[in-house]
Amino acid sequence: MSQHKVVLLLGSNLGDQKKNVEHALQKINEGGNQISQTSDFLLTDPVEFVSSNIFCNIAAVIFTHLSPIQLLDFIKNIEIEMGRINDSKSSGGYSDRIIDIDIIKYNDLIFKSERLEIPHQKHLFEREFSRILLKDFI
After folding, report:
1. pLDDT per residue over 88-110, tens digit each?
2. Is the pLDDT of residue 126 over 80?
3. What SS3 class is residue 42?
4. Which of 6, 38, 58, 120 has the most crowded Cβ, counting Cβ within 10 A?
């Protein structure tokens, strides 16, 4: 099996945000993925919804044997295990969340399905905080 280079964005705006992100990174690593690089943490206001809770965000480069859909299922399971109730795709909007993990790039793959779009267009081109976090990774 070959290793795939993947860029992820992680964020949390509930509870101990930094600890939540660190815990998610630990779970990603424990799942057989190699974390090769992380950005500095960045505190930001919510985007596309209103909340008084700020986000703690980080970008990470990992190497994985998982396919894009397997990786999506894996990170969605981490979100659920950590207590995330509403997924923005299923609920139709954004809300406060204990953890959010997005696949930004997967090698140089261009992929689009009902559940997943790679590369993640909003993070690459529309969200300022994402561009800051990803500047050394893309």
Report:
1. 545 456 678 899 999 999 999 99
2. no
3. strand
4. 6
